[in-house]
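Data card: per-record layout.
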Amino acid sequence: MLLFLLLAGVAAVTLLVVLFTPHIRRYAAGGVCMSSTRLDGKTVLITGANTGIGKETALDLATRGARVVMACRNVDKGEEAAASIRAAYAQAQVEVRELDLADTCSIRSFAHHFLRDFTHLHVLINNAGVMMCPYTKTNDGFEVHIGVNHLGHFLLTSMLVDLLKRSAPARIVVVSSLAHNFGWIRFHDLHSQGSYNSGLAYCQSKLANVLFARELARRLKGSNVTVNSVHPGTVNSDLTRHSTLMMIFFSVFSVFLKTPREGAQTTVYCAVAEELHSISGKHFSDCTPAFVAPQGRSDEAARRLWDTSCELLGIQWD
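The structure for this 318-residue chain is written out next.
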């Protein structure tokens, strides 16, 4: 009898999901960028643009006329993504360049070549990221989540910020996550050498993204370069590839998740929306201002993280 009731319950839930799938999908899709802004003559740089929301962001901005540089660790996959963008939009101006955010030598080389070849940069989208990886260190000895998601983008942005200023009005978009709510910056053990939890390491790096955007916006005040962070939503992408449990969860509940195109909407919104031309230091989700956890609003933590990041990277950025 118990088994019958259990099976009946599962069947009922399955039927309800099937019947209400169109409504669930509309709700799960979230906000849509309604801006029709053109980007003709503008240069956009997107990290991690070979897959997921990065690729969809590249496609959207290319259709607006932008020249899009897709900075990817895997150049072959990047070229495949670029080819699919050109197939979808024949006039797309997209090119792929190698960038490994887990290697500061690669970051410096990329930036030097970019500054040599480009005279303008109007939009920088720090999109690339890793999630729930087994304990790994970058080439420079940083724990991989804080190293790739935060420190890599911190160094890249520091090397390109003067070009952004010269190209102003310009925008920087930092892709963070709702996971920042569960993160704390462990200044005493930033690289998780004392103890390691892949989920908490990810949350720490996403909080670092929010704090970086906040502090950078403060430092760029008056430069006509804006900085905002975004939560793209829970997106059905390959970001969960390091967690079997998350992959199963995402497969079972895929109807409740955003597609990469839907997940890219807030990034695109922050990159192009006319009403955000002077908005900086904010956090967005579903193309609207979003809640920031108290630890993400701490000016003291933001300044301390800035100084710590400069020290770890061996740079000066005043």
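Known properties of this structure: The beta strands are 43-47, 67-72, 93-98, 123-126, 170-175, 225-231, 283-285, 288-289. Confidence is low (pLDDT under 50) at residues 12-18, 23-27.

See the next section for split statistics.
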